[in-house]
Amino acid sequence: MGHQKSLIFECYEWNYKRSTQKTDIARKIPFIREYAESKIENYFSLKHAGQVISLEDAISICSIPGRVSVIDCPCQKYLFNRYEKKCILFGTTANIVENLPNLDTYDMDFEDAAELLKSTESKGQVHTVWTFISPYIGAICNCNQRKCLLFHLKNKYPFADIMRKGHEIAVVDSNICTGCGNCQKICQFNAVIIKVRKAEINDNCYGCGLCRNFCPLDAIQLVPYRI
Fold first, then answer.
1. CA angle, 165 as apex, 162 and 170 as ends, to 5°?
2. Less Cβ crowding at N or C end of the chain, within 10 Å?
3. Are residues 87 and 106 in the same domain?
4. Do 196 and 156 belong to one domain?
């Protein structure tokens, strides 16, 4: 069983392409399109739900008592042959993964986890929390649009709500903002526009907080999202 699960990771790109190709073909057939789309929606709501979270929320989750471990990001490891320990695992998820070949886990205390999250934030990486059989929290992913398959799936299948928005949204203080554009460059969701030397946040905002932390004037804050 462990070897079979390991092959899933080692054939990461092949499995991903095969799954998306099958889904794309099914969505082209009128009488099974609805079924194919519902399968994706159910998977990412019942089994592997994800949500963008702020740095503060990510650190808070790591403070929950229990095992906290880190592994190399599977996307970077198996797609780009880059080894970067930044995927944080919790509890049972860590126990399962440590028994898989070629996926070394490293246990961390709360302070180590907090420092890792701050480091990934400083590199412009978005924090997302993921369940493994909802609502059990299994992992925190720290990545960006260019190097994350889940980001790619989010963009490819927008109907499925694969990566949910956070419970906060960015707000710009126009009295402080000078329109430097740092926030626009770092945003992973095309949520920032510059008008008349002022940054504005649009409805694409997921509340990750990167724009806030890359603003040199502290002109951006996260506030509770209201429908």
1. 150
2. C
3. yes
4. no
Same domain, 133 and 175: no
Q: Total structural domains in the chain?
A: 2
Whether residues 43 and 81 share a domain: the answer is: yes
Residues 6+ apart with CB under 8 A from 188: 124, 126, 144, 145, 151, 206, 208, 210
The amino acid at residue 70 is V
State the residue range of the domain holding 192: 168-224
173 burial via Cβ count (<10 Å: 0-12, 13-18, 19+): middle
Query: Do 215 and 119 sit in the same domain of this protein?
Result: no
- Tens digit of each residue's pLDDT, the chain (227 residues): 444 444 445 565 666 677 778 888 888 888 888 888 898 888 888 888 899 999 999 999 999 989 999 999 888 887 778 889 999 999 888 888 888 777 788 999 999 999 999 999 999 999 999 988 878 899 999 998 877 888 888 888 888 888 999 999 999 999 999 999 999 999 999 999 999 999 999 999 999 999 999 999 999 999 998 76
- Residue ending a domain, among 164, 189, 214, is 164
